[in-house]
Amino acid sequence: MSIELEHVSFTYSKGTPYEKEVLHDISLTIEKGEFVAIIGHTGSGKSTLIQHLNGLLHPTKGKALLDGTDLSGKTKEARAARGKVGMVFQYPEHQLFAETVYEDVAFGPRNLGLTEDEVEQRVREALQFVGLDYDALAQRSPFNLSGGQMRRVAIAGVVSMKPDYLILDEPSAGLDPGARRDVFREILSLYKKQGIGIIMVTHSMEDALQFANRLLVVYDGRIIMDGKPAALFRERRKELQDVGLDIPEIYKLKDALRAKGLAIPETVTDTASLLKEIRKRKGLK
Amino acid sequence: METKQQAPFIDIKDLSHIYTDTENNEVLALDKVNLAIRPGEFVAVIGTNGSGKSTLARHLNALLLPSEGTVKIQGMDTLDETKLWEIRQNVGMVFQNPDNQIVAAVVEEDVAFGPENIGVPPDEIRQRVEDALKAVGMTEYRTRAPHLLSGGQKQRVAIAGTLALGSNCIVLDEPTAMLDPQGRKEIVGTVRKLNKEKHITVVYITHNMVEAIHADRVVVMKKGRILFQGTPQEVFSRVEELEELGLEAPLAAKVAFELRKTGMKLPQGIITNEDLAQALA
Question: Which of B100, B147, B180 to mutate to test the interface with A (most CBs of A within 10 A)?
Fold first, then answer.
């Protein structure tokens, strides 16, 4: 299974004096088993790009396909294909609207025409999946939950649609470190246990390094890098910084250590391995 | 030190804030907070979502008023309605979302909006706008349309707006949460410069601990209370406590903490990468 972009270009306000091509001839295949992070500065075209992956925007040129079905089509198949790609927007908690957590999460499944029993089942599963206690929270107002909980309710609303792919636009923006860990625990378990493909836009180089197995760098409407996060941060840091991005903190720490004569191997990209290496170098266990 | 003898710029005494939520429960968002901030001090406030940081920030220019206790800005009580405008000129606010704070179609008009509203003479407005844009490094963008700027540039325009109004204190509530790395760097750099060179008092609320490293003081909040505070070196050395709170010490502090745990002798107060490298060299 895969989502495929074939030579996709996109022009905003086509046919008006304001028309502007913001994506230029992008070709890309994302398999279902991948966890993809997309980084790029504000205005690089990331958001436009991800909206092509579930048919919210249609290419001006080229094609966006899910398992061969054109996502911009008007057929039943095209609609079903779009339904397989869930989208969690930036600050999704701003889109909560119902009086109770239950009603909010149930909105999508109910629109699928499921029976109320099936809807309840979906809501239970989805809340459980994002680590929220159904009995304690289902009848609460979503607006009185903490920021992290609200975000998980919003994610549950998308998960309840049982997508094959989940697109998340800056899932950790504005969350404290604890809430960020919680949200990523859920995202990782969706990825690992249910095999859902994850496509995540982020401004956090740490998130990209820690969670993704593939990194796409978008600049000026083009994908300028595509590879393993650790390798790109290691080998192309200069270019990353030139396009307004950064490298994760651990690489900066390793630079500082190297400057003082303590060179840590390239392969070390997480705290545990770094500690091990420092202890080894300092003759400690 | 001379600064210590000065009267506080912000003086908060036994401040409580109670509000009623949509389920009709009374919520105690701030619980007897005491905090004094010196003129020219750079204070970072950290805490989890819902710890009361943003509520506290909104008390600093009378967007919220105390349920109990007092907040004084240069001696002016926020409950004193006759001082309201003076307080708001003294304390500028910059919020998280850069797109919600722009009112005009041209950068310099946006920055001029505040002083125009308080009746500053046109010549002086021109001077203030020029100075403010220069202070945030946005002079060359003065005739641009704000909506075409990057997030970091928009936030700098918002900061310039507070400067043009004559604020000598800026309260920033997670100003970088929605910005890309370049934008984050711009804001951190601008705020530090204003603090160092223009002695602007800064209250900086953030979830990003690395941004709090350069503060004079870090205040940690939990459930509407100040749990502990100190220099960044003191606060970020309490690695385990921070983690229990759902916060996180900077990477260098965490690494130093773990190394000490297994018997490595390292000096106290390691919080930057350079500190750690120096200690291990």
Answer: B180
